[in-house]
Specification:
By secondary structure, the chain is mainly alpha-helical. The protein is built from 5 helices and no strands. It starts with a helix and ends with a helix.
Length: 177
């Protein structure tokens, strides 16, 4: 399997979650209320799976290794766009968390911010994924030989294996000893 295989599989799960978020967002707009637990779940999914796990492998492994190659100006431009898009997504998730906190504290106007930030994520991810799938991942594999691809794939597997430990070590650190 090429190193992009796991990344593309991850895209399919992210797309499924985005569809769920779309449906929930539509319900929020209709009903004029939000389930804060769903927002927490969506935020955890985006932060842990889409961003730390998925974007982590892209930025820490694939993009790092591409930076060592003489890639085309077009691929360099797309890679920079993807990095900026990752940052934008992180910022939007942060705004969603802030809006949910305000909502839980009784500020019903925060519902508008919850919907707008969820809408941004729901619109962002399909376009972002399409750019990666159709215009970046496959052509960029040509920059690597089979041995290099194998090293990246193994590093991605190790990244996944270590990530759960990293996540829960931070949970424990948050609450003390």
């Amino acid at each position: 399997m090429m190193p992009i295989g796991p990344l593309m599989i991850e895209h399919r799960l992210i797309e499924r979650m985005i569809k769920i978020m779309q449906a929930k967002m539509e319900n929020i707009s209709k009903e004029g209320k939000v389930d804060p637990d769903f927002v927490d779940t969506a935020v955890d999914f985006i932060r842990t799976y889409a961003d730390r796990c998925h974007h982590g492998k892209e930025e820490d492994i694939l993009f790092r290794d591409l930076a060592k190659k003489n890639i085309s100006d077009e691929h360099q431009r797309i890679m920079q766009e993807l990095i900026e898009e990752h940052k934008m997504g992180r910022n939007n998730v942060k705004k969603l968390v802030e809006a949910k906190k305000k909502y839980v504290q009784g500020n019903k106007d925060a519902l508008i911010d919850i919907v707008s930030n969820m809408e941004m994520l729901v619109k962002f991810y399909p376009k972002h994924i399409e750019k990666e799938d159709k215009h970046f991942f496959l052509p960029c594999m040509d920059y690597f030989n089979d041995a290099e691809k194998g090293v990246m794939l193994n590093e991605m597997r190790e990244f996944d294996r270590n990530m759960i430990h990293e996540k829960y070590a931070k949970v424990v650190e948050t609450y003390g000893s």
